[in-house]
cyclic-guanylate-specific phosphodiesterase (Colwellia psychrerythraea), 292 residues
Amino acid sequence: QAKDDGRNTVRFFTSEMNARLQRNKEVLTDLAESLTKEHFELYYQPLFTIDQNILVGAEALIRWHHPEKGMIPPDQFIAVAEKSGLINELGDWVLAQACREIKNFLNAGITVFKVAINISPVQFRRKDLLQHMLMILAQHDVSAELIELEITEGAVMDNVDQAIETMQALHDAGFQLAMDDFGTGYSSLSYLKRFPIQKVKIDRSFISDLENDDDSKSITTAIIQMSHSLGLHVLAEGVETEEQLHYLQAEKCDYVQGYYTGRPIPASEFIKNFSESKKGKYANGVWTESTT
Ligand code: C2E
Ligand code: MG
Ligand code: MG
Ligand code: MG
């Protein structure tokens, strides 16, 4: 970190920085302890086809049940885990837990289904990432075809050639690959052509602005069209309203994820909601089975 600051920069250690460091240290100690005690849980958010008729998968989103502070969202601890390298162990737990739970989903009759997990840029750069993940899959007797890996632009842009090699190896092993939070990073659409990915996830920020910002509409439409012309599927993240959904349907987006079609929920609840009715609509928290 310090070496990025340039030669002529003098860094002052303010009390604010001190306090932040102290906080991070506490989070890190608690994280390490929670890892051994399994104080984590995966929530699952449903992913649907754009007509909402078919459940195609779920994104696994980590939750930390802190013994004193209650539930802590990932935004408040992933970055700390990344700086310390603890993210690798956390990521291992996420994959293993997803393997255990995907079997429960399949057993409950939720088929044609993939679980998407988030891969941190730190994990992505691990030399033994693929071997390591295959080992975890083998331990749980789960095939890579059932897993989609969500990678961000930040993970791939600092060494594009190396990243492409890693992505290709992962895909060859059977994993599906999605570019997460697309549009927020610094990769250009032209890079998509080189990446061996199958899906683009349009970042929530564009979707939430769809109703009152024409630029967000143009960008969303451009991402959908460009992705399709490259043979990639497109999913819209963070869909919260019917209006947003209608726009995305008109623009031929393929998949939808968001509070409108379903919030992240614990695995047991996910099974309750989705085990039997494969056909139906889930909107504003209510599941309605379709009769056709
Ligand atoms: P992400 O991968 O982009 O995940 C989507 C985030 O958007 C989730 O937040 C989800 O709860 C939230 N979301 C989904 N639909 C809506 C919506 O309609 N409206 C709004 N306002 N939000 C919506 P969450 O669970 O807090 O996760 C935040 C980020 O933390 C994730 O963003 C991902 O980058 C990271 N993360 C979560 N789980 C893991 C994990 O297991 N490993 C790693 N490395 N990162 C994770
Ligand atoms: Mg994600
Ligand atoms: Mg995302
Ligand atoms: Mg995001």
Summary: The chain has a mean pLDDT of 90. The two ends are 57 Å apart (CA to CA). The pocket of magnesium ion (ligand 3) is lined by residues 180-181, 201, 237 (CB under 6 Å).
